[in-house]
Specification:
single chain; alpha/beta; Rossmann fold; 7-stranded mixed sheet; 13 strands
């Protein structure tokens, strides 16, 4: 059976993400089982891995590292075995070298760069909350079929700025561009919440389940 490991480390919107992934599997016809888990053996055996995250970077990083064996299992599966991976919101931010919220906290360092307070254009408030359009610098299979003006749902005050601009898969205009998604090899992540982004989000998750990086 094909299986998605949805990582439970006490810091994610697990049930909403799980429902959205099950709907995406039905929509895509991939037959994936969605398993909410913190078991390294489940991570190693999964066909795909999703890391959600809600809250502060430091709290989420501490929560992830507090679960025995999970970080090692993620590194083995994603970096060594090249299992397709999707990070959502703080789950994307944890891919960074470090986060600067509540002091400097090391991330997984899969995407070089830092997570810092967003700097929107004049007159724009922090947090960045609500619907916003995406600008795609280049095609990516996970963003296939979104139409001419895809809008997705954000709620965040911090964002990752990759060291390598080639890692940026999408931006959003909030008075100035903010990084909305990153991609490198088998690794993909969105600052926005696909599970809250209605039809566009469903398409993105379905694309991820079919993606062959």
């Amino acid at each position: 059976m094909k299986r998605v490991a949805l990582i439970d480390y006490g810091s994610g919107n697990l049930h909403s993400a799980g429902r959205a992934l099950r709907a995406a599997a039905d929509h895509a016809g991939t037959g994936h089982d969605i398993l909410i888990t913190a078991d390294p053996a489940d991570i190693a055996a999964a066909d795909r891995i999703v890391l959600p995250g809600v809250g502060h970077f430091a709290d989420c990083a501490a929560g992830l590292r507090a679960v025995p064996g999970v970080v090692d299992a993620l590194n083995s599966a994603v970096i060594d075995a090249k299992t397709p991976f999707f990070g959502i919101c703080v789950g994307l931010q944890l891919l960074a070298t470090a986060g600067l919220e509540d002091g400097r906290t090391p991330g997984l360092d899969w995407i070089g760069g830092e997570v810092d307070l967003i700097r929107p254009g004049p007159g724009y408030r922090i947090p960045h909350m609500g619907w916003n359009g995406l600008t795609l610098p280049r095609p990516h299979p996970v963003f296939a079929g979104l139409g001419d003006d895809p809008h997705v749902y954000f709620t965040h005050s911090y964002a990752l700025t990759p060291n390598d601009p080639a890692d940026i898969a999408a931006t959003a205009d909030y008075g100035r561009p903010l990084v909305a998604a990153v991609a490198r090899g088998n690794i993909f992540g969105t600052q926005f919440h696909p599970e809250k982004s209605q039809g566009v989000g469903l398409t993105i998750l379905a694309n991820f389940l079919k993606w062959l990086p």
